[in-house]
Amino acid sequence: MAGGLIALSLPPAGFWPLAFVGLALVDRLVADMPWKRRWKRGSLVGLALFGPTMFWMSELTAPGYVVAVLLFSAILGAFLALVPPGPGRRPALVGAWVLSEALRGVWPLGGVPMSTLAVGQVGGP
User: CA torsion sign, 29 to 20 to 78 to 49?
Assistant: First the structure.
């Protein structure tokens, strides 16, 4: 649900307030969980986020779309696994999210700076 809400905050739906709700749910998903569970939950959030928002890639190459969604989901899961479960979790969550988007913006193959939170907030105040 968290990834789906964030996906709905991005164009073409573009209902930007949903990003805040989705991130709050991500925070609750990683709270007080061991790193393996944070990785799994983060990867599932990534699947729900990147599956619909990167569907345009399937027009170019269907296998490439599948690989990209799985890879980017695993990257998000890995960064969320690094978020400490206790105190300091919220600032670390913000940092992990920003770093995962920064990595996707430059790697692989020069990066795919799509499906980022900033894109969804363009329509916001």
Answer: positive
Output the pTM of the full model: 0.92
pLDDT profile of the chain (125 residues), mean per 10:
95 92 95 94 96 92 94 96 90 95 86 83 84
Count other C-beta atoms under 10 Å from residue 46's C-beta: 26
**Token digits of residue 50:** 């990147």
Pairwise CA distance, residues 89 & 14, whole Å: 28
DSSP assignments along the chain, one per residue? -HHHHHHHHSTTT--TTHHHHHHHHHHHHHTT--HHHHHHHHHHHHHHHHHHHTGGGGGT-HHHHHHHHHHHHHHHHHHHHTS-SSTTHHHHHHHHHHHHHHHHHHTTTT----S-HHHHTTT--
Instruction: Tell me how far CA of residue 35 lies from CA of 30, 51, 57, 69, 85, in angstroms.
Output: 9, 23, 31, 21, 8
